[in-house]
Write a structure and sequence with these properties.
Dna Ligase, domain 1; 11 helices; D-amino Acid Aminotransferase, Chain A, domain 1; 2 domains; 330 residues; single chain; alpha/beta; 31% helix; five-stranded parallel sheet; 15 strands
């Protein structure tokens, strides 16, 4: 039995289905536990054990998470949104005392991933290219070289991110964006890299996918690519962090060079494309959790040129179904 838990499952139906397929393909027994604050979160409907929990900031959240892990004999906990990660890392001892293991980077590494300014300094220390970056007080608007790019230091889902083309925009957005970081604006395509690491930090695979269209901060259309320089840098980043469980690394191509911009220490929203291309990360992770040997594929051994085009799928539940889901508390 390998029981796993996902926090803040939201719309991640494809990911949970991919894990269910991996269980079936491996003839492995196990339970998928899913948490969310909203009874209408679509992914709750595809979990074996859905739970409605308090908001992350509630003092009851961690005690309830710990009790769910104990009750369901959870062996691994995977966060699915960025704000969950520092909180889980902070309470690692209490959570792992239940027998569950956290697929979460160490607490110090959460600061690297969550603060884009520290992320930029981390990339420099690791020796991978990163855009030139400044804090607002370090930029002189009349003499800055435009275009620039501004985003929150602690943001996620591409919220409050803007290209800046002139002095007036820089002055405005520097006060509009919450705790901003300013970077040189790079023109090339954005590449998202799913770095699959096990819970001991071993890098199992890296798959790169170019974003074609993004909706609500998540990829809607993309294509798999392979660039050995990107793959090598992602391995270096994962080992230096260090990564414990899957992470997502973002970079921008500019004049043939990848410039690394962000780290999301969790499964990326577009990971189903990587799975479809041959990197079955759910199967890899379940194998490691179950102690089932498998041979790591060579880095870059996945289908390149595979497109993904997403669409919405509706779920319909009755009032009785809703009330039953809403009652799934401890």
């Amino acid at each position: 039995m390998v029981n796993i838990l996902f926090t803040s499952v939201g719309r991640r139906v494809e990911l949970l289905r991919a894990f269910r397929c991996a269980y079936a393909d491996m003839s492995l027994q196990g339970t998928i536990v899913a948490l969310d604050i909203d009874p209408l979160a679509p992914a709750l409907a595809v979990a074996d054990r859905p739970y409605i929990v308090p908001r992350m900031k509630s003092p009851d959240y961690i005690p309830q998470l710990v009790e769910i892990c104990r009750r369901e004999s959870v062996q691994a906990v995977f966060p699915l949104i960025d704000p969950d990660i520092p909180l889980l890392a902070e309470h690692r001892e209490a959570i792992e005392a239940t027998g569950a293991r956290l697929a979460v980077v160490p607490l110090e590494a959460t600061k690297i991933a969550s603060d884009k300014w520290i992320t930029s300094q981390f990339f420099q220390s690791v020796g991978v290219p990163t855009p030139r970056s400044w804090l607002p007080e370090e930029v002189d608007p009349p003499h800055a070289q435009y275009p620039l790019f501004i985003k929150p230091r602690f943001g996620s889902a591409s919220k409050q991110t803007f290209q800046i083309d002139n002095e007036r925009e820089l002055v405005f957005f520097s006060s509009y964006v919450n705790q901003p970081i300013i970077q040189e604006c790079l023109t090339g395509p954005e590449i998202t890299n799913d770095v699959v690491c096990d819970l001991s930090g071993d890098v199992l695979a890296v798959i790169s996918r170019q974003r074609i269209e993004v909706r609500w901060g998540e990829v809607a259309k993309g294509i798999t690519i392979y660039n050995p320089d990107i793959t090598e840098a992602c391995v270096k980043i994962a080992q230096a962090l260090p990564a414990l469980g899957p992470i997502t690394v973002q970079c921008m191509m500019h004049e043939g060079i990848p410039y690394f911009t962000e780290i999301n220490a969790r499964f990326g929203g577009g990971v189903p494309l990587g799975i479809a291309a041959g990197v079955d990360s759910p199967r890899m992770l379940l194998s490691r959790l179950a102690g089932i040997p498998f041979e790591k594929p060579p880095l870059g051994s996945y289908q390149v040129g595979l497109y993904m085009s997403r669409f919405d799928e509706s779920q319909f539940i009755t009032q009785a179904d809703y009330e039953r889901m809403a009652s799934h508390h401890l």
